[in-house]
Amino acid sequence: MTDLDFENWTCPLPLRDTPSIVMGHGGGGAMSAELVEHLFLPGFGAAAATGLGDSAVVTAGGARLAISTDSFVVKPMFFPGGSIGDLAVNGTVNDLAMSGATPLYLSTAFILQEGTALSELARIAEAMGAAATAAGVRLVTGDTKVVDSGSGDGVYINTTGLGVVADGVDIAAHRAAPGDAVLISGDIGVHGVAVMSCREGLEFGTAVRSDTAPLHGLVAAMIATGADLHALRDPTRGGVSASLNEIARAARVGVDLVERDLPVPPGVRDACSLLGLDPMQVANEGKLLAFVPAAQAGDVLAAMRAHPHGEDACRIGTVVSEHPGMVVARTALGGTRVINLPIGEQLPRIC
């Protein structure tokens, strides 16, 4: 194998100073973006589609199809409110939904560590089946591999999803525009805190449960209003901070938030204060961000609040032409602070 010439890479820090993979490369923040931009895309060459986002809309035989793939390595595999099984289904369903697609089919691939209890694997399979049934998708193909004891960590799952996108639906990050209202479907940070709450050494007595849920029904209700939904994103790895920054950069716009309007529940706020974490960077698995024209925001909010997964929806900010590519929050004291794209991840192995 030819040695890689790190010195001639054109990537910024910290990737250049990190010749080996570190946990931050999987966190959905700046290090993940650098890995895609400066290693994967050049390596894939002409075969790569621009961006390699969470999902893509392609045309085949006249049909508009959405496709997405995701891998799940959450630790522990079972946590308050869910498990790696339902997370694997809902996570891919939601990536499809953020393109405005109706999810139809999923593949399932398992990497199992030798010695994993069959009873645990059965619980995971049952959770996947129940989640797929609830979401209205079929599990149509899959694969299983086993690695030596000590080479993995229980169960890793990959799911790939396929869905259809209706004519006239055009939802993409680059469409966010000045004047758009920024909406969120409910409380943030609950999934990450739920996973933390049951990890060894991180018990802090919170009753927070994961928000893992399929969101395509909520998106369908939003589309049914007739509003021109510009951009949607489910803020998983890297949380709300990462998602807002990614959209701001893709659309070359600024985002102004009102910090007191961010729906952070007391349990999440207390846990993050205790551990020195930013709730905006904690993962969610059943929430979405929406960028919609301000004149249509009222109708969209009403539709969201009428749906079980959007009952606590609210507006948290506005898209502006100033400071393109940046997210800024107005604090309770009247000042402002920049909400940066996370470098890596505050909490590894949570999705």
From TrEMBL:
<dbReference type="InterPro" id="IPR036676">
    <property type="entry name" value="PurM-like_C_sf"/>
</dbReference>
<dbReference type="Pfam" id="PF00586">
    <property type="entry name" value="AIRS"/>
</dbReference>
<dbReference type="InterPro" id="IPR011854">
    <property type="entry name" value="HypE"/>
</dbReference>
<dbReference type="GO" id="GO:0051604">
    <property type="term" value="P:protein maturation"/>
</dbReference>
<feature type="domain" description="PurM-like C-terminal">
    <location>
        <begin position="178"/>
        <end position="323"/>
    </location>
</feature>
<comment type="similarity">
    <text>Belongs to the HypE family.</text>
</comment>
<dbReference type="InterPro" id="IPR010918">
    <property type="entry name" value="PurM-like_C_dom"/>
</dbReference>
<dbReference type="InterPro" id="IPR016188">
    <property type="entry name" value="PurM-like_N"/>
</dbReference>
<protein>
    <submittedName>
        <fullName>Hydrogenase expression/formation protein HypE</fullName>
    </submittedName>
</protein>
<feature type="domain" description="PurM-like N-terminal">
    <location>
        <begin position="54"/>
        <end position="165"/>
    </location>
</feature>
<dbReference type="Pfam" id="PF02769">
    <property type="entry name" value="AIRS_C"/>
</dbReference>
<dbReference type="InterPro" id="IPR036921">
    <property type="entry name" value="PurM-like_N_sf"/>
</dbReference>
